[in-house]
Specification:
193 residues, Aminopeptidase, eight-stranded mixed beta sheet, 8 strands, binds coenzyme A
Length: 193
């Protein structure tokens, strides 16, 4: 069997049952329909979606987003974890690995959290945990992150989680009519050694 096929099989096996990732304050777990109320607090907030090509979303759009996530998880080509705060079981936001490339053993991470919880280290905590999970347990060689250059908070989170600047992607994103370059950051399995 080709190595990439074997890797895909192993990846699928490790993702089934859907992994729960624990940190001191957070639980990363599967997204459920019941999470819509919590997720809406983030998706309807223009400050959260400012650097995203989507949103803000109303309730129906957030329901649709959750249904899309559930359908896409079936494909096995992307992942999505709800970021649940253990203390009160509130879902703060989402984090994912997508663009999974079985040949290069790489993936792209993305995340967003509700405004009310910013500045308390939650994004760094869940990014660090998912990065270690992706590189060690899922055996990815590399995880990349693509960030708008003005998104200082996210760039700081990436640095705190050990990601390094890799390259600039010209005219990569269109945000409400404005095209912008993006910065690609990355971390490799060997960085963890
Ligand atoms: C980016 C985001 C996930 C960060 O979440 P968070 O839980 O507040 O992140 P943390 O608390 O772990 O760390 C934030 C860091 O950014 C810093 N920061 C925040 N705003 C900043 C700004 N305007 N300029 C510079 N640094 C800033 C904080 O001081 C902190 O760094 P520190 O610990 O050294 O003080 C959150 O702001 C968010 O959801 N934004 C909208 C979605 C988004 O941009 N996603 C990323 C797309 S690439």
């Amino acid at each position: 069997m080709k190595p990439e096929k074997q890797f895909e099989r192993d990846f699928t096996r490790r993702m089934n049952p859907y992994p729960v990732i624990e940190t001191p304050r957070l639980r990363l777990r599967k997204v459920f329909r019941a999470d819509v109320d919590d997720l809406l607090k983030a998706t309807e907030d223009a400050r959260v979606t400012k650097y995203e090509p989507w949103g803000p979303y109303d309730r129906d759009e957030t329901v649709q987003m959750v249904e899309n996530i559930q359908a896409q998880l079936e494909s096995g080509l992307c992942t999505e974890w709800a970021v649940e705060r253990k203390e009160d079981a509130r879902v703060l936001g989402l984090i994912h690995l997508n663009k999974i490339d079985f040949f290069h053993r790489s993936a792209e991470v993305g995340y967003w959290l509700a405004r009310a919880c910013w500045g308390q280290g939650y994004a760094t905590e869940c990014l660090k945990a998912l990065t270690v999970y992706g590189l060690e347990t899922l055996r990815m060689d590399e995880i990349v992150a693509v960030c708008h250059p003005d998104n200082a908070a996210s760039l700081r989170v990436l640095e705190k989680a050990g990601y390094r600047y890799q390259k600039t992607l010209p005219a990569y994103i269109s945000l409400r009519g404005n095209t912008a370059d993006c910065l690609q950051y990355h971390i490799t399995r060997w960085d963890l050694l």
